[in-house]
């Protein structure tokens, strides 16, 4: 890295605060959905996504599948129901100005997600505008979040991005495991940080 490039990165870091909430994942036990963390038990109605927010979400999906392919994992398919949940949660976090997870057990109990036996979530917040690549790279560089991104137990993904009026960016990745799917068990061990296919802070943004 050149000295000029390093200086530019330090300047950006001083202007932006990027926060990642710890990932969570639950699977349906024999007795029913597992209890979630201390979080709201319902998600607000689905939020409408702008064209820019939709483009960012799809870009994150493509990056996730590139990472999975590099590690010999099957791709995750876009799931619009999970995307609706993710969009709503990102908007709710922005409204309350709180980076947190929702009640995962309650999510699994929802009728529109009844074909899922497991669900996982990553959340993200930046105080200023950032491109899709920054969200993805942040999740991949975090041990807790990488567990979900390259987890062999997921086969579906919905991404919701919310570009707030104050310039902050909020995002949610909602992973799912289809009931009866022939997949490896949902992994709980931390995958290695390398290879990292998309380390770049690039891609579509809110503007």
UniProtKB/TrEMBL annotation:
Source taxon at top rank: Bacteria
Ranges of residues in domain SCP: 55-180
Stretches with biased composition (Pro residues): 34-47
PROSITE patterns: PROKAR_LIPOPROTEIN
Pfam families xref list: CAP
Region (Disordered): 34-56, 179-207
Classification via InterPro entries: CAP_dom, CAP_sf
Protein name per its UniProtKB record: SCP-like extracellular
């Amino acid at each position: 890295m050149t000295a000029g490039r390093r200086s530019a990165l330090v300047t950006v870091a001083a202007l932006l605060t990027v926060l990642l909430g710890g990932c969570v994942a639950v699977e349906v036990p024999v007795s029913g959905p597992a209890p979630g963390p201390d979080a709201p038990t319902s998600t607000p109605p689905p939020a409408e996504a702008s064209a820019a927010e939709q483009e960012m979400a799809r870009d994150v999906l493509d990056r996730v599948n590139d990472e999975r392919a590099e590690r010999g994992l099957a791709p995750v398919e876009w799931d619009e129901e999970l995307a609706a949940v993710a969009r709503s949660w990102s908007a709710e976090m922005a409204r309350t100005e709180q980076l947190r997870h929702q009640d995962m057990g309650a999510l699994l109990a929802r009728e529109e997600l009844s074909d899922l036996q497991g669900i996982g979530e990553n959340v993200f917040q930046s105080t200023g505008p950032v491109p899709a690549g920054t969200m993805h790279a942040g999740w991949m560089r975090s041990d807790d979040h990488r567990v979900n991104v390259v987890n062999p137990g997921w086969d579906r993904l919905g991404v919701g991005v919310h570009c707030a009026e104050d310039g902050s960016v909020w995002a949610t990745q909602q992973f799912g495991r289809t009931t009866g799917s022939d997949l490896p068990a949902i992994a709980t061990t931390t995958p290695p940080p390398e290879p990292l296919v998309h380390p770049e802070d690039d891609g579509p943004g809110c503007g």
